[in-house]
Design goal:
Strand content: 5-15%
Bound molecules: nicotinamide-adenine-dinucleotide, magnesium ion
Largest sheet: 7 strands, parallel
Number of strands: 11
Number of helices: 16
CATH superfamily of the largest domain: RNA polymerase sigma factor, region 2, helix turn helix motif
CATH architecture of the largest domain: Orthogonal Bundle
CATH class of the largest domain: Mainly Alpha
Helix content: 40-55%
CATH topology of the largest domain: Rna Polymerase Sigma Factor, Chain: A
Structural class: alpha/beta
Length: about 400
């Protein structure tokens, strides 16, 4: 890799997870602001053709394929068609995230695979736009330690956390504080099965689970939204982003996905952030900070929407929310175990090897099977992740055997 001496006035952006749903929304916002951002690196796991297409359009210096064997012919195609250097392997993700010519990293890889490159960005003090909540759920303590030590700037992209960030008081030096804050309320749509008869949940298919009523997202987060584990992960994410104990983080169902979250103050005031459900809104907020920039989202028309509803979540329908609170309260390696078990269970469900209602059973069983341990070092977190994947896979095999 090469380093150019002088930096241009625009910010260099490395986009991890460029071919995903958040990746596409990010490129859409970036393309509206060529004066602010130049794309430094675009990364994908295996989808070479869409990556090449984006490279043609955005002309990054580097492209990365982390899950594909080296192929000279492909490297030549990227160089000829898009003028960029194609790098291979997971280490290349860390290189482009930590490169001195990159100022800003969009962390939009799905799952635990996003941890290492996001940490590399944190160690080198970048502005990190964090969509990859799983990294923070599994490694909250060591991750936040690195952020504090390096002076990296962590900006939440998850719509709820971005909303909380916008509603919290800001320090004179920048960044949110908890002064005068009583609690935060994370809203949740309730997903596609919020009102479905409970007996039907056992038989729902991956296609039904991925058909979210308000958002178009990757398949993993769509299933997480259907089980509401997404909100459980977000409670843990909020704990680390805002340094809040679990009893000061509440979950409220809001089916329209217009109010993205709320902050309640000690004087009884409640501030909320509203917009149409469009991830370009939080992405533009973080890309533009401290200024406001165009996102491309439709303006909100509350007169046309008419009614906004709120209700408490039914924990019998959504046991994953409870499991996440328990893991957060247990602390140590429990959130890493919860996250890994969920990734294994969701993958098995998407592959037709597990029933929807068994996802929570796999997670609960894994939390019981893996011994509690510390979670404050990266080594401890990675060990918990590996043990939990083995335990969860064994439970999936047992349950699948029974179901067959
Ligand atoms: P997606 O499945 O659409 O895209 C995932 C991206 O990650 C792809 O570019 C893929 O190539 C890459 N990837 C997958 N596995 C990888 C691996 N092992 N190594 C390196 N790269 C890999 O997912 P998404 O919906 O864009 O979500 C990305 C992240 O953002 C997730 O953590 C999700 O929870 C979070 N998020 C998404 C949304 C949304 O609206 N989509 C909202 C909030 C938070
Ligand atoms: Mg969210």
């Amino acid at each position: 890799m090469t380093t150019s001496g002088a930096r241009s006035a625009t910010r260099g952006l490395s986009l991890l997870g460029a071919t995903g749903s958040i990746g596409a929304s990010t490129l859409d916002v970036v393309s509206r602001h060529p004066d602010r951002y130049r794309v430094f690196a675009l990364c994908a796991h295996t989808s070479a053709a869409p990556l090449l297409e984006s490279c043609r359009r955005y002309r990054p210096r580097y492209a990365v394929l982390s899950g594909v064997a080296e192929d000279r012919e492909l490297r030549r195609r990227f160089a000829e068609a898009a003028g960029c250097e194609l790098l291979y392997g997971a280490l290349a993700l860390e290189q482009v995230a930590a490169h001195p010519d990159c100022d800003t990293v969009m962390a939009a890889i799905v799952g635990a695979a996003g941890l290492a490159p996001t940490l590399a960005a944190a160690r080198t003090g970048k502005r990190i736009l964090l969509a990859n909540k799983e990294a923070l759920v599994m490694a909250g303590a060591p991750f936040m330690h690195v952020v504090r030590e390096s002076g990296a700037e962590l900006l939440p992209i998850d719509s709820e956390h971005n909303a909380v960030f916008q509603c919290l008081p800001q320090r004179a030096t920048g960044g949110p504080t908890l002064t005068g804050v009583r609690r935060v309320v994370l809203t949740a749509s309730g997903g596609p099965f919020r009102a479905a008869p409970l007996a039907r949940l056992e038989h729902v298919t991956p296609a039904e689970a991925c058909a979210h009523p308000n958002w178009v997202m990757g398949r993993k987060i769509s299933v997480d939204s259907a089980t509401m584990m997404n909100k459980g992960l977000e409670v843990i994410e909020a704990r680390w982003l805002f340094d809040l104990p679990p009893e000061r983080i509440e979950v409220l169902i809001h089916p329209q996905s217009i109010v993205h979250s709320l902050v309640e103050y000690v004087d009884g005031s409640v501030l909320a952030q509203l917009s149409n459900p469009d991830m370009r809104v939080p992405i533009a907020h973080a890309l533009g900070l401290p200024e406001r920039i165009e996102s491309g989202a439709r303006p909100l028309d509350l007169g046309a929407i008419g009614q906004l509803g709120f209700e408490r979540p039914d924990l019998k329908r959504f046991p994953c929310v409870q499991l996440a609170y328990e893991a957060l309260r247990a602390g140590g390696n429990a959130p890493a175990v919860l996250n890994a078990a969920n990734e294994v269970a969701v993958e098995a469900f998407l592959a037709g090897g597990l029933r929807f209602t068994q996802i929570a059973l796999v997670i609960a069983g894994t939390l019981e099977a893996v011994a509690a341990a510390a979670g404050d070092s990266l080594a401890a977190v990675l060990a918990a992740d590996a043990s939990a994947r083995r335990a969860a896979a064994a439970i999936v095999t047992r349950l699948h055997g029974k179901a067959a």
